Amino acid sequence: MATHISSADGSDIEAVTKSEFYDNLRSGDLVFCCGRTDISKTIEDLTHSPFSHVLMTWLPPDSNEWLTIESTLHHGVHVGQLASYVDDYDGDLVLARRPVLSVEEIRKGRDAGLRVLDDAYDWKQEVSVVGHRLLKCIPVEIPKKEYYCSGLLYLMSLATRYPLQRPGPNYPTPEDVWTDSTVVPVCALTRAG
What we know:
The longest helix has 12 residues, at 103-114. The mean pLDDT is 86. The two termini are 28 Å apart. It is built from seven helices and six strands; from the N terminus they run αβαβββαβααααβ. It has a six-stranded antiparallel beta sheet, sandwiched between helices. It is of the alpha+beta class and 193 residues long.
């Protein structure tokens, strides 16, 4: 089980090279991102976590290119290229997996994510979740087919026998997904600097 960490490079998670990171990948793995941009740092500070984003990996049949299923501010729910994180991301990446999931359950979760492709990134709900954690009197926006990164992963997990934990009425943050009892760290790709 993954437990709270202050940073990827300061943890006891095995640090690996890009090549080793790819060698460790399996479809359905989760990649937790520790960004260095202002928005990433704001999310990390407000959630008391090194993680500002999380996504699911996917290697389609008959392909050698790893893809992502994720939700981002500019693209909403979409399929992206994992290489854009491994090669170009401005921060650390931590690879984790949920060993309780069978290949069939991973497929069901992936398919649930693919069914909501192009849904908007719900920045209002994400802000309300963080606000509610700071002040309980701030209401949480109820999602209407709009997902932020960890909210999408929560939706995808509902297709399995092992849904991710959900803190009260809120969709989980990346930290909540990280500390779910079914998530196990695999390795970290850390950047110098």
